[in-house]
Design a protein that fits this description.
This protein has 382 residues and is of the alpha/beta class. The chain has a single domain, classed as Metal-dependent hydrolases (TIM Barrel, Alpha-Beta Barrel). 25% of the residues lie in helices and 27% in strands. Helix 2 (95-110) runs parallel beside helix 3 and helix 5 crosses helix 6 (225-232). The protein is globular, with a radius of gyration of 20 Å. Its EC number is 3.5.1.25.
């Protein structure tokens, strides 16, 4: 298959080009000419597929529910927002519930279902701080142990790639060191850690911060907290929810100025309520959640944030048009940066010969015209 556009994003800029796809790979990227191709996208922007490393669900499905058909349907829906790869993300729960969810993801992964590729699992909790538990059930929070984590990884068939943890509760950084030595990213989140504790967690293998600014000790000019670590420590990758509700556009701008171009990662942190109308209520982690008019999801009783209904293409638009982040930096935060964190940047995150043919065609308003997941068009447009 040959596709072309006058705006193909390669080598950090848009150029006229032709992309040749064979099976699931990009096999050639050629100079633009007037020869026949299968799809001519004119002046539409062709960019790498988006990678969402922190997303709990959408369209009525929640990762913790462990429903096979719901996960498969979610995979297919993700193409509408340009997502070609993702990490289904759990929330703090009982061991039995988590093991059920992990086994379900592993089963669906083996079946190679249509739609976005499951790159692994993001285990958010149960090793979090009770002060900063957020919308996660505090009664299920436990102390981290290597032995219990091994049970989870066995249930997941080795698919846990990121684990969010309050590192201040990891005695002697034992689990942090274990994960680092086994290629699992420890991401600091739902944490009351000090900047000093963050610093030593990095020294023991921690690599990232989960949804920066949310669910963590804040930045103060005398007590810098986890936020201070995210902004100050150049080696840390740092997630940020770019719905402009969880974090203001101004704070997003400060975040991107502080992080290097290679370390900022946009995530949706979306819940099962994504894809539904304002006012819709859901049960999430045994709590009732409602969609507000701005698209954010809140706990009905407490009123605080529970997650988002953000779509990745909308997040990219908000980064550029509201937070005033340069397009190349914004795009990298949802393509090559998460690929690098997950150590799959030799096959995903860029339009390069030999890489997976994960490709998105964007309209001028950032809506998705077409998404190719490993070379297969998902929306049948254009």
């Amino acid at each position: 298959m040959l596709i072309k556009s006058k705006k193909v994003y390669i080598a950090d800029r848009f150029v006229p080009a032709i992309i040749e796809i064979e099976k699931d790979k990009i096999v050639n990227i050629l100079q633009y000419d007037d020869s026949h191709v299968d799809k001519d996208y004119g002046n539409k922007r062709i960019v790498p597929g988006f990678i969402d490393i922190h997303t709990h669900g959408a369209y009525g499905f929640d990762t913790n529910s462990g429903q096979e058909n719901g996960l498969k349907e979610w995979q297919q829906h993700l193409a509408k927002e340009g997502v070609t790869s993702f990490l289904p993300t759990t929330v703090t729960a009982s061991k039995d519930e988590l093991i059920k969810a992990l086994k379900n993801i592993a089963k669906v992964k083996k079946e190679n279902s249509q739609g976005a590729d499951i790159l692994g699992i993001h285990l958010e909790g149960p090793y979090i701080d009770k002060k900063y538990h957020g919308a996660q059930p505090i009664q299920a929070v436990v102390q981290p142990t290597i032995e219990e984590f091994q049970e989870y990884q066995n249930a997941a068939d080795g698919l846990i790639k990121i684990m969010t943890m309050a590192i201040e509760h990891d005695k002697n950084f034992s689990l942090t060191k274990y994960c680092a030595s086994n290629g699992i990213v420890v991401s600091i989140g739902h944490s009351s850690a000090t900047l000093e504790q963050v610093t030593f967690a990095i020294a023991n293998g921690a690599k990232s911060v989960t949804h920066t600014f949310n669910g963590m000790s804040p930045f103060n000019h005398r007590e810098n907290g986890v936020v201070g670590g995210a902004l100050r420590c150049d080696s840390l990758y740092s997630e940020i929810i770019c719905d402009c509700n969880h974090v203001t556009p101004e704070a997003i701008q400060v975040f991107f100025r502080s992080k290097s171009k290679e370390k900022a990662i946009m995530v949706t942190d979306s819940l099962m309520c994504k894809g539904y109308e304002v006012g819709k209520k859901f049960q999430f982690a045994n709590l009732e959640v409602e969609i507000y008019s701005d698209g954010s999801a809140h706990l009905v009783k407490e009123g605080n944030f529970a997650g988002s209904t953000l779509k990745m293409n909308e997040g990219l638009k908000k980064l550029v048009t509201e937070a005033m982040v340069p397009f190349d930096v914004a795009l990298q935060s949802c393509t090559s940066n998460p690929a690098r964190l997950l150590n799959v940047d030799n096959q995903k995150g860029s339009l390069v010969v030999g890489y997976d043919a994960d490709i998105v065609v964007l309209e001028d308003d950032y809506s998705v015209m077409e998404t190719y997941c490993k070379g297969v068009p998902q929306l049948k447009k254009g």
